[in-house]
């Protein structure tokens, strides 16, 4: 277990505070979780197994069924009950692309599944994900949104917001009074009463404007999406959730600064070009030491998920783009 709480002699926790975790450790936990998910995806491809990265309970059932069908239970159990970390299994996991033997795939899958489900992998990842909201780390990113939004909003209009990847119902977006309604969703809600557990990519497309929003907040979420194609799909999907019956609708996008400042494939300009191609104009931008904040306004000819990326925004090194 990553986090321990002190207990009284009766076994009750001494403190009722939220568990905390240091930033360095949080980064390591998040990196490890992403590695496990990526390697599991590779194994799933090889075993022709469907996994739901966003739904561990369902994935567990699907994995068990497949392993049983393939008669690989004993190998899977071996990996599941191995000690963590196991040097050999760690090495095998890193080389999973080269592996085709079913017994080996099942063993590593068991090893991965037990780390995610039994050894605190998912739980620690969820706690680590929340630390960006820590006051000492810049805190709630929606404070910047509210500051910007106050300048563009029409005081007579009743705004509705959709917050993707919501970790708290007490952030400025929910408490400032700027929005009449805030719908909060997250893949793994830590507050099911106020935050709906939902994958944005599976949220049903609204049928009318009463179900759409004036603003979508996508703060530190896009960087959690595992590959460029899905990231593009997430951006394209936004417009389907923005109200069509109003002139102005907005997307608030927040990313770790290295995603655009230290990436071979993405720069701030390229990101804004992609958004412009989709039909959004950048109206505010701010960079802190670690984070970039952007506010986009939808233009009349915005592309939704039914449209297509006409321009070539495939994964290319930025130096190749500059030479083209
Ligand atoms: C680092 S947290 C960011 C939280 C908060 N918005 C912030 O700005 O600090 C990222 C969250 O995005 C959520 N997330 C990632 N992909 C998502 C998706 N497709 N639908 C809903 N939530 C998603 C994750 O579950 C995680 O809780």
Automatic annotation (TrEMBL):
The keyword Cytoplasm does not apply. GO terms for molecular function: rRNA (adenine) methyltransferase activity. This is 25S rRNA adenine-N(1) methyltransferase. The keyword Methyltransferase applies. It comes from Lachancea meyersii CBS 8951. Its EC number is 2.1.1.-. Belongs to the BMT2 family. Pfam families: Bmt2.
């Amino acid at each position: 277990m990553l986090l321990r709480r002190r207990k009284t002699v009766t076994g009750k926790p001494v403190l009722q505070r939220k568990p905390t975790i240091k930033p360095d450790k949080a980064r390591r936990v998040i990196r490890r979780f992403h590695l496990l998910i990526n390697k599991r995806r590779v194994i799933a491809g090889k075993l022709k197994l469907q996994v739901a990265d966003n739904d561990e309970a369902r994935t567990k059932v699907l994995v068990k069924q497949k392993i049983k069908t393939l008669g690989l239970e004993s190998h899977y159990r071996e990996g599941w009950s191995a000690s963590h970390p196991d040097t050999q299994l760690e090495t095998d996991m890193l080389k999973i692309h080269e592996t085709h033997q079913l017994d080996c795939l099942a063993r590593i899958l068991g090893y991965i599944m037990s780390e995610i489900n039994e050894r605190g992998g998912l739980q620690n990842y969820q706690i680590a994900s929340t630390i960006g909201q820590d006051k000492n780390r810049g805190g709630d990113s929606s404070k910047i949104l509210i500051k910007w939004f106050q300048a563009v909003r029409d005081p007579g209009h009743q705004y509705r917001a959709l917050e993707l990847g919501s970790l708290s119902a007490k952030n400025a977006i929910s408490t400032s009074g700027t929005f009449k309604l805030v719908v909060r969703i997250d893949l793994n809600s830590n507050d099911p009463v106020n935050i709906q557990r939902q994958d944005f990519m599976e949220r049903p497309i609204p049928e009318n404007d009463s179900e759409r929003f004036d603003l979508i907040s996508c703060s530190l979420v896009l960087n959690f999406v595992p590959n460029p194609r899905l990231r593009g799909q997430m951006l394209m999907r936004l417009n389907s959730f923005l109200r069509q019956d109003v002139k102005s609708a907005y997307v608030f996008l927040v990313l770790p600064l290295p995603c655009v400042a230290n990436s071979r494939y993405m720069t701030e300009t390229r990101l804004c070009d992609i958004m412009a191609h989709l039909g959004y104009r950048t109206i505010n931008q701010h960079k802190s030491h670690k984070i970039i904040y952007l506010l986009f306004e939808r233009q009349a000819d915005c592309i939704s998920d039914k449209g297509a990326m006409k321009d070539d925004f495939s994964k290319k090194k930025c130096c190749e783009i500059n030479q083209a």
